[in-house]
Amino acid sequence: MSRAIPGMILAAASLLAIGCQSEPGAQPAYLDVVPTRNDLIDSQRLVNDTKLGSVTPPVRAAFQHDFPDVAIASISSQMSATGQLLYRITFLTSRATPDSVIYNDSGTIVQQPTTVVPVPADITITPAE
Q: What is the pTM of this model?
């Protein structure tokens, strides 16, 4: 048994030495993958879904509908003077502009964001000519 151990060590060292060599100038395989815009949006939506886990389902649904392509920075909650639970969701717009919106626990906007106005899905905006 003691003779097998040095042989195993030598074999492992040989495999490491041979297996770790790569062609000079070759780039790692993970650099060949370039994420598309849709990949990035899907990834951000997954992050947002995780962060929205702390809010009520109506707030989650309303925010996802009103702001589908933003990046959530933080979510805080507090009670209003009337005892209603409010959620402040702070986010970054697609132009990396920070903003926030406040929803009540039923998913109604209490305070609109200052720089982003949600556009309903059934409205199409076309640029002026």
A: 0.60
